[in-house]
């Protein structure tokens, strides 16, 4: 399906009856070069970059439900590259650069809006820590601006600057951060991959892996056996369930993260704002709703819904930061399942089983990583070695003592 | 979620903090020949099941006891609550 202004005009006059599906609904072939398990943002991006960057088009994406129905369809749409540690920051900056060129690259409107992200500080030590993080960001040209209280006040006069417990000291601002229309990311990658020959197989659940002499040769699915030279899993949220079919235990727990959206309001919040003293972040969608969230619920779960104590905690954070949002009514709340890893950082890696690859452990930061995750995973699948910005995302990093622990919490997934 | 504490009765889960899989009770012996491998698995790897999960909760805002709660991770239904001390003693992990 191709689009043009003329096509929109013509379809408008003729009752919109001429639109055709954006991707095919093919039957599974008996064998592929690469099978990607999971038709979410990361899986579809991997298929897209395999086809586009490496010319590998005999690829299937198998998805148990419909594509884009998992976390790429239920996140808070924020993109940023404001990390600090060497194993992370170059990767997320590659992702940011891919975001910036994504719409031109896959020729699809993903509504990428670089309105900036502001992390607030509430004490001198926190402000110093942000200065340090900003310097680490500058090392990879991510762009960071340290703001004082009055500069923040100019940008966001509605914040509670003189809060008795957590007065605002300043903040760090990444002007290139922002939001992206999340569903369009999945659809754009799907259309781009499909048009290059990738088969997207929906309603095709993987029930097991074909393991012959310790080598993965394909997958057993609800639509039959499909063999492949390489199998690549990208099912974050369900990684534990899927990799258990290959008898693998992972350094991951599944947790639920809730998100919320208010009724539509007039333009109010300039970019993305995060509270530095509690866990609360907010942006405003193009429809006007305030999109916000906070901490994970904190216990193992595969249920895509959370509990009320965290709803209360998030709303308290919102009230402490922006008292006026107490007047807005909550429209919707939902939950998504996160792969919470032992150090808060992800995996893009081979496994001890030849031919079986694993991408997961994205914690609550998978959406912003989507382009680089697909780009680096495709690199690993095509070349057999990790991309230079993803060399630290290996499963054996705990054994080597090479954790990437941005928050310094240790092996306690619900605290990352 | 309501956790039916064996000593103080039904309490809101918000009074508790969560540690994780109850297999953390089974700390390996540091004198094992392959202690680095065993401790790697103990500390970092998890079963992470979808279904019944035995897990450690700490009644921080209450009587400060550790509990082993058996809970379904797909429904949040709690089917059993034990004192972690009793579980540890039964596994010969405590005194």
Shape of chain B: globular
* Oligomeric state of shown chains: heterodimer
Q: Helical region count of chain A?
A: 9
**Averaged pLDDT of chain B:** 95
* Fraction of helical residues of chain A: 25-40%
Can you tell me the CATH class of chain B? Alpha Beta
β content of chain B, as a range?
25-35%
Tell me the number of helical segments of chain B per DSSP (H or I, 4 or more residues long): 2
- Please identify which CATH superfamily of chain B we are dealing with: Folate-binding superfamily
- CATH architecture type of chain B: 2-Layer Sandwich
* Spatial separation of the terminal alpha carbons of chain B: 31 Å
Order of helices and strands of chain B: EEEHEEEH
Could you name the CATH topology of chain B?
Answer: Folate-binding fold
Total separate domains of chain B? 1
The global form of chain A is globular
**Class per helix and strand makeup of chain B:** alpha+beta
H/E order of the elements of chain A? HEHEEHEHEHEEHEEEEHEEEEHEEEH
**Could you give the distance between the termini of chain A?**
42 Å
Beta-strand share of residues of chain A: 25-35%
């Amino acid at each position: 399906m191709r689009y043009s202004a003329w096509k929109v005009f013509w379809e408008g006059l003729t009752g919109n009856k001429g639109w055709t599906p954006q991707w095919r609904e093919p039957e599974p072939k008996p064998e592929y070069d690469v099978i990607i398990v999971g038709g979410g943002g990361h899986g579809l991006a991997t298929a897209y970059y395999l086809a586009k960057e490496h010319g590998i088009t005999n690829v299937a994406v198998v998805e148990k439900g419909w594509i884009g129905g998992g976390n790429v369809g239920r996140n808070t749409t924020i993109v940023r590259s404001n990390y600090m540690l060497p194993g992370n920051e170059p990767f997320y900056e590659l992702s940011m650069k891919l975001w910036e060129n994504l719409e031109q690259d896959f020729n699809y409107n993903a509504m990428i809006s670089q309105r900036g992200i502001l992390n607030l500080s509430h004490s001198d030590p926190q402000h110093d820590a942000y200065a340090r993080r900003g310097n680490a960001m500058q090392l990879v040209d991510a762009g960071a601006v340290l703001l004082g209280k009055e500069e923040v006040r100019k940008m966001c006069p509605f914040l509670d600057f003189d809060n008795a417990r957590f007065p605002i000291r300043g903040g760090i601002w990444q002007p290139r951060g922002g939001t992206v229309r999340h569903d369009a990311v999945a659809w754009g990658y799907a259309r781009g991959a499909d048009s290059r020959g990738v088969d997207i197989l929906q309603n095709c659940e993987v029930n097991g892996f074909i393991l012959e002499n310790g080598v993965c040769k394909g997958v057993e699915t609800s639509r039959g056996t499909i063999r492949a030279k390489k199998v690549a899993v990208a099912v974050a949220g369900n990684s534990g369930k899927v990799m258990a079919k290959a008898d693998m235990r992972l350094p991951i727990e599944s947790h639920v993260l809730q998100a919320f959206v208010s009724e539509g309001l007039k333009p109010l919040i300039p970019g993305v704002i995060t509270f530095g003293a509690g866990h609360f972040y907010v942006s405003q969608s193009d429809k006007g709703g305030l999109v916000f969230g906070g901490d994970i619920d904190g216990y193992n779960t595969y249920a895509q819904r959370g509990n009320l104590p965290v709803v209360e905690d998030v709303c308290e954070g919102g009230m402490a930061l922006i008292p006026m949002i107490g007047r807005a009514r909550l429209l919707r709340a939902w939950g998504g399942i996160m792969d919470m890893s032992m150090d808060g950082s992800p995996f893009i890696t081979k496994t001890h089983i030849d031919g079986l690859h694993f991408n997961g452990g994205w914690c609550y930061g998978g959406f912003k990583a989507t382009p680089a995750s697909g780009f680096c995973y495709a690199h690993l699948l095509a070349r057999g070695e990790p991309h230079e910005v993803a060399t630290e995302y290996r499963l054996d990093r705990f054994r080597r003592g090479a954790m990437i622990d941005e928050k310094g919490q240790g092996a306690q997934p619900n605290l990352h | 979620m309501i956790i039916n504490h064996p000593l103080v009765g039904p309490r809101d889960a918000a009074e508790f903090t969560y540690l994780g899989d109850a297999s953390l009770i089974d700390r390996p012996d540091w004198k094992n020949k392959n202690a680095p491998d065993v401790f790697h698995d103990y500390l970092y790897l998890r079963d992470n099941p979808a279904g019944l999960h035995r897990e450690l909760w700490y009644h921080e805002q209450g009587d400060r006891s550790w509990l082993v709660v058996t809970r379904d991770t797909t429904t949040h239904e709690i089917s059993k609550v034990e004192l972690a001390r009793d579980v540890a003693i039964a596994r010969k992990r405590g005194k």
